[in-house]
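Minutes, project huddle
Topic: does the predicted pose make sense with magnesium ion bound?
PN asked that the exact inputs be recorded in the minutes so nobody has to dig through chat later. Recorded below.
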Amino acid sequence: MDPAGFCGQTRVIIVAGKGGAGKTTVSAALARMAARAGLTTLVVDVEGTSGLPAAFGRPGPLRYDEVVLSEAGPGGTAQVRARTLTPDDALLEYLEGHGMGRISRRLLSTGAVDVVATAAPGIKDILVLGKVKQLERTGSADLVVVDAPATGHAVTFLSSASGLLDAVRAGPIRAQAEDVVELLADPERCQVLLVTSPEETPVNEAVESAYTLEDRVGVSLAPVVVNGLYAPVEGIDADPVEAAAAAGAFLRPGEADALAAAARFRQARTALQAEQVERLAKALPLPQLHLPFLFTTELGLTEVDVLAAALADGVRRLPG
Ligand SMILES: Nc1ncnc2c1ncn2[C@@H]1O[C@H](COP(=O)(O)OP(=O)(O)OP(=O)(O)O)[C@@H](O)[C@H]1O
Ligand SMILES: [Mg+2]
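Predicted holo structure (C-alpha cells), as shared on screen:
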C-alpha cells in the first residue's frame, strides 16, 4: 500500500499507547509521512504537555491556536500544523459557543467548572472528541492526528461518549455524544493506532486495550506500531580480538572482554524484542509497523524523518 493511500483511508488517526511508548514521536512521524505524501496534517495534543514541537526542532509549548511545525516543501511535501485541544480548552470553547463566554473563563479559573465535570464524568472527553469531529468535518487538514492520553486513560477517553449515551436522554450534550460515537464507529473517518514498545508489559497492555477499544468503543484499529526495535548489527557475533586484528586496531587489556559483553547484551536484548514481537503477532491479528530505536540523545526533525521513512517502508509492505 502506498503511504498516500494509507493516510487517505481515514480522516482522523488517534495515536494511543502506554505512557512513554512513543505516542508523541509516532504522531510526529505519522504527520511527516502524510506530509511527504502530500497531505496537510494537523496534530492535536490533548494533554498540552507533549514534546511535539521539540520533535520538529521548534520552541514549545503548543497552544490552542494552530502553529506550523514544518513547512510545505519541494516534491509536493505538505505542511504539518499542530495545536492543543485540552479538556479545559474544549470546555471553554463549548461554553463560549453557547453564550457563556464572559463567565466561563472565570468559572474555569475558580475551578467551578471542575465541579460540573466531576458530577458528569466524561463530559470533557466528549467535548474534546466533539471538537476533533468538528476539525474533521471542516476539513482544516487532510489528516488529523490525535496524540492521545496514555492507554488506561485513552480507553476511558474513547468510551466516554457511549457511556454518556446510556445516562443522558436528551439535550445538547447527548447530541455531542451521539456525534462522537458516530465518528468513532466509522473507519473511513476515524481509526486508532496503537503504539507499543517490544517489551512484555507494554505488549500485554496493547493487546488488552486493542480488544477493549474494539469491543467497547467499536473503533477500528490501524496497524499496530512497534517502536524502538534494535536494528541488526552486522558482525556482532565476531570475536573482538580477531575483528580488531583484521581491522588493524589495537585492543588494550580488558577491551576485548568489554566488547564481547556488550555484544552479548545487545544480542540478548534483540532476542527478547523478537520474542515480544512474535507474541504480539499471535495475540493480536493486526498488521505491524516496525520502527527502529534511534541512538541519539534528543529526537529532532532529522530523526523524525528517519522514523517517517521507516513507517512508509512498513506501509508499502502492507497488502493494498
Ligand atoms: N524510536 C525511538 N528511538 C529513540 N528514542 C525514542 C524513540 N521513540 C521515542 N523515543 C524517545 O522516548 C521518549 C518517550 O517518547 P514519547 O514522548 O514519544 O512517548 P509518549 O508515549 O508520547 O510519552 P507520554 O506517555 O509521556 O506522552 C522520548 O524521549 C522520545 O524522544
Ligand atoms: Mg506524549
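Observations noted during the meeting:
- The chain has a mean pLDDT of 91.
- The domain at 3-231+284-317 is CATH 3.40.50.300 (Rossmann fold).
No decisions taken; revisit at the next huddle.
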